[in-house]
């Protein structure tokens, strides 16, 4: 994988996707001048002797407390150690790497007052594969993701733990082994490093990338289910969707038409099928999946802007030697984006489970009950559908909006918070549930299609069926089902379903 060279303020969604997938990261050479200029401005501001929040004052409710010059280094170290108050399981390593890269790009815009040597250490840690152990709980999404970013920053001081090749080591030991030394923070640096939305944004981006894969996979499993039920592709006719005009609906309908093109099963529908219309879970796929695609693209636009922004406080403006306090650390845009991603994940799964429920019901699908050749003696797909229903309900519960919640913190100085970290952290768990739901539908739809032999589906869908059957045999008699589910889920999770499908499916950009 090619390394990503970050141009501050101009990184693309593809850049962040590659970093999340493990690409190396480096700052563009042009960034270092702005970083140095910003740090020099902090020195000039300090020389004026005025009280400036975050540089020579306390923090939050203690902003009115003036700090003596000889205590400024201790002030920055203290804020990092005191704010490293997270709890819970360690955040996933790909998410923490993405958080580090986001912070790197933000500091490099020259509005944070951080010295080049501090930024170089963060870049060097990424390059050396040193990933701080960051507890996943403790942020309310304003005043920035304080606790998670403090845990990241503490490791730069030689405090806390760092993952090296997936194994946690004392931070000082890991830095030394990589030929790096802990830093002593300068004025403003501690606050600049721990203030911002990078933890929430990294989690939201990780959820977005998973949702992109899952939406495309859901189109494939939806087409397979339509084939298994001998459904019609008439509802996917481009003329229907052009009259409504939603871009996502038009694109997903086109994808479904392409997936089913050339299918002998589809062609058989018009010959001897008395049904006039298919149920909504088949017929309304473009309307539901297209709406999910549009929502995900809106979330992607928000997160791409956020990822290229500067979200710490105060912000340094070297041209005027000013430090301006504001509220860019408030993660409300990320919270809204995370809520939208959660809604899309829940609805993709809900539609998939309804297709699975339709397939196991002979009154609706025309297939053998529970997709087993000998129903009664064998239960077939009876309980896998229950499993899908359980996972769908869990995702629906998790999809309740987080952005509408708030709780005052810091003695009511921070009296409205975004809960963006909560909203973003749930997304990977929801995506994991959806991996399983779509894996269950994949198993059921392929089983259903094979009842129509010798009729075959389209080239694209037959390629997916062949991939599954290379690992999971048809269900002729009841057997231990959990291993089949694990295989199908893994195929969805690692993108194997999409890799087997020789078609271009909708992506976010």
TrEMBL record:
Contains an active site 4-methylidene-imidazol-5-one (MIO), which is formed autocatalytically by cyclization and dehydration of residues Ala-Ser-Gly. Belongs to the PAL/histidase family. It comes from the Bacteria. It is an enzyme of class 4 (lyase). It catalyses: L-histidine = trans-urocanate + NH4(+). This is Histidine ammonia-lyase. PANTHER family: HISTIDINE AMMONIA-LYASE. One of its GO terms (molecular function) is histidine ammonia-lyase activity. The keyword Lyase applies. There is a cross-link at residues 142-144 (5-imidazolinone (Ala-Gly)). Keywords: Cytoplasm, Histidine metabolism, Lyase. The keyword DNA damage does not apply. InterPro entries: Aromatic_Lyase, Fumarase/histidase_N, HutH, L-Aspartase-like, Phe/His_NH3-lyase_AS. Its EC number is 4.3.1.3. Pfam families: Lyase_aromatic (PF00221). It comes from Novosphingobium pokkalii.
């Amino acid at each position: 994988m090619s390394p990503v060279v970050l141009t501050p303020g101009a990184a693309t969604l593809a850049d962040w996707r590659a970093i999340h997938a493990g690409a190396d990261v480096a700052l563009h050479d042009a960034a270092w001048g702005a970083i140095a200029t910003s740090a020099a401005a902090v020195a000039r501001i300090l020389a004026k002797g005025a009280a400036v929040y975050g540089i020579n004052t306390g923090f939050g409710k203690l902003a009115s407390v003036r700090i003596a010059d000889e205590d400024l280094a201790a002030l920055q170290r203290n804020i990092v150690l005191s704010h490293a108050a997270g709890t819970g399981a360690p955040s996933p390593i790909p998410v923490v790497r993405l958080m580090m890269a986001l912070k790197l790009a933000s500091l490099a815009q020259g509005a944070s007052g951080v010295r080049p040597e501090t930024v170089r250490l963060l870049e060097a840690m990424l390059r050396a594969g040193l990933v701080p152990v960051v507890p996943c709980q403790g942020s309310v999404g304003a005043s920035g993701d304080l606790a998670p970013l403090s845990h990241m920053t503490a490791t730069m001081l030689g405090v806390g733990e760092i993952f090296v090749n997936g194994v946690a080591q004392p931070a000082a030991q890991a830095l030394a082994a990589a030929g790096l030394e802990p830093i002593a923070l300068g004025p403003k640096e501690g606050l600049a490093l721990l203030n911002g939305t990078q933890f929430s944004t990294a989690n939201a981006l990780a959820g977005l990338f998973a949702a992109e894969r899952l939406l495309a996979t859901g189109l494939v499993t939806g087409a397979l289910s339509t084939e298994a039920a001998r459904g019609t592709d008439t509802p996917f006719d481009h003329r229907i969707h052009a009259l409504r005009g939603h871009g996502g609906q038009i694109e997903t309908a086109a994808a479904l038409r392409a997936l089913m093109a050339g299918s002998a099963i589809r062609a058989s529908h018009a010959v001897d099928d008395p049904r006039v219309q298919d149920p909504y879970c088949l017929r309304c796929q473009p309307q539901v999946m297209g709406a999910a695609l549009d929502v995900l693209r809106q979330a992607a636009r928000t997160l791409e802007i956020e990822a290229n922004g500067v979200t710490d406080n105060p912000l340094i403006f070297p041209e005027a030697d000013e430090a301006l306090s504001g509220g860019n650390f408030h993660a409300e845009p990320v919270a809204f984006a995370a809520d939208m991603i959660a809604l899309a994940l829940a609805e993709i799964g809900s539609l998939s489970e309804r297709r699975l429920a339709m397939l196991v019901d002979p009154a609706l699908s025309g297939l053998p009950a529970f997709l087993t050749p000998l129903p009664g003696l064998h239960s077939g797909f009876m309980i896998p559908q229950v499993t899908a229903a359980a996972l769908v309900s869990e995702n629906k519960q998790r999809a309740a909006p987080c952005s509408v919640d708030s709780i005052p913190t810091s003695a009511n100085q921070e009296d409205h918070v975004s809960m963006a970290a909560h909203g973003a952290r749930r997304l990977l768990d929801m995506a994991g549930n959806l991996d399983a739901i779509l894996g269950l539908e994949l198993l059921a739809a392929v089983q259903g299609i094979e009842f129509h032999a010798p009729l075959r589906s389209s080239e694209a869908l037959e390629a997916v069926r062949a991939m599954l059957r290379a690992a999971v045999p048809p269900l002729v008699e009841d057997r231990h089902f959990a291993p089949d589910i694990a295989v199908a889920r893994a195929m969805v999770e690692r993108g194997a379903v999409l890799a087997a499908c020789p078609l271009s499916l909708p992506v976010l950009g």
